[in-house]
Design brief:
Largest sheet: 9 strands, parallel
Helix content: 10-25%
Oligomer: single chain
Number of helices: 4
Radius of gyration: 19 Å
Structural class: mainly beta
Distance between the termini: 48 Å
Length: about 230
């Protein structure tokens, strides 16, 4: 669906599911209208398009959460810095998915969500990092899946989540060694149930060095190693 069909008096008051693709090809800023019944929103930006007219520069979509009062699930894929901007609070959101995106402000997005968030999925992303942010709370959060997106762990180092919230994390063998905010990430992994897997198909030939961060994490009592890659 193209945002250009959202002209007066066109309305979608009963629309429940919306998927927009290649939004960066649309002229101007795509401002999502009031969709009072919308439950699922998927935004797919043209991250692999060789002739993208914006080339990741400047915002192309504005989400006004107050215009989406029934939104339960939000998916963002292929976004660059400021591809999507938002305002208001998504107090009803239960599931958030961010994939194949770069330089987004994940903490800023999480700060717009309410206490109903239950599930978060992040894959192949690189988020902006900065100074420790104010504490945010997600009392209903049950599952966090972070796949090859180490910077996605950082916001949860400063979040209040239930002790039973499970973190499913897929990494490359040296990812922990490269972290600058290791002390915060270590604290998160030490206090939450973690299901840890390795990316790719290569099997480690020997156990990681006992002094390595990976070995330290693997030895934590709440960490379960998953997948066939472990020696």
């Amino acid at each position: 669906m193209s945002p250009r069909i959202w002209t007066v008096p066109m309305t979608f008051r009963h629309l429940r599911h919306l998927h927009l693709s290649c939004i960066e090809h649309e002229p101007g800023l795509c401002v999502l209208p009031s969709l009072p019944a919308l439950e699922t929103l998927a935004l797919n930006f043209c991250c692999y398009c060789l002739d993208c007219p914006r080339n990741g520069r400047g915002p192309s979509t504005l989400i006004q959460f107050e215009c989406l009062p029934q939104l339960r699930a939000l998916s963002i894929s292929g976004a660059h810095a400021e591809s999507v901007i938002w305002c208001g609070q998504a107090v009803q959101l239960q599931k958030l998915e961010v994939t194949y995106s770069s330089h987004m402000d994940l903490h800023g997005l999480l700060a717009c969500l309410g206490e109903d968030l239950e599930e978060l999925h992040i894959a192949d992303c690189e988020f902006v990092t900065g100074a420790p942010a104010p504490l945010i709370a997600f009392p209903a959060l049950r599952r966090v899946q972070i796949l090859e997106s180490m910077s996605g762990l950082t916001p949860f180092c400063f979040a209040d989540v239930p002790a039973a919230t499970a973190f499913h994390v897929r990494i490359r063998p040296n990812d922990f060694e490269d972290l600058e905010d290791w002390s915060h990430v270590w604290g998160l992994l030490a206090r939450q149930p973690v299901y840890l897997s390795l990316a790719g198909s290569r099997i480690l030939r020997s156990p990681p060095d006992s002094a390595s961060r990976l070995s330290q994490v693997a030895s934590l009592p709440h960490v379960r190693l998953e997948g066939p890659n472990w020696p």
